[in-house]
């Protein structure tokens, strides 16, 4: 679960970009995904990937607004079948936003970045949750990806939390100082 202030700031950050294609790895009950859908276009395609068997049967689709399509992909994000399913729902489009919030191990993040970062369009956003702890795998993954790219972070309060984002432009463009929001 995100810390409210960091999440509100992140949603505002997304809203000015008007994302249409969004995917979250590790959607759980869909709190972050639903919040991101509020920042998305009226016709957005918002995909959540989750492997727990405990997901409610109720379809996440019911929570979209306007002409939005909210999709739950039930499966292990690390399998080729799940990647293929995400691509299927993207219908040949690339992601405007990829949000990584599954298990935050070095190994899992490496797999997820290998599977999904290539699906993000030029200028799209890759964001990591629970990234504020120095040395944590999400912060290390963010540091690696943001080298030479614009990046932003929104920090929560206390241990854990923190959303860190990278704009996927070609490395070497201007990198502004991160904005830090203390909750
Ligand atoms: C921290 S919770 C996500 C919270 C959610 N993003 C939110 O903001 O409400 C992490 C979720 O990732 C899921 N998860 C972990 N590894 C996964 C994988 N390989 N494939 C799909 N889901 C995974 C877990 O089952 C868990 O529900």
Key terms for this structure?
183 residues; alpha/beta; Rossmann fold; 7-stranded mixed β-sheet; 29% helix; globular; binds S-adenosylmethionine
Structure description:
Helix 1 runs parallel beside helix 2. The protein has one domain: Vaccinia Virus protein VP39 (Rossmann fold), CATH 3.40.50.150. The chain has 183 residues and is α/β, with parallel strands linked by helices. It has a seven-stranded mixed sheet with strand order 3-2-1-4-5-7-6, sandwiched between helices. Helix content is 29%, strand content 23%. The mean pLDDT is 91. It has five helices and seven strands; from the N terminus they run αβαββαβαβαββ. Bound molecules: S-adenosylmethionine. S-adenosylmethionine (SAM) binds next to helix 2 and strand 2.
What's the layout of helices and strands?
Layout: H1 4-15, E1 21-25, H2 31-39, E2 45-50, E3 69-74, H3 80-90, E4 95-100, H4 106-116, E5 120-129, H5 137-146, E6 151-154, E7 163-167
Parallel strand pairs: 1-2, 1-4, 2-3, 4-5
Antiparallel strand pairs: 5-7, 6-7
Bound molecules: S-adenosylmethionine (SAM).
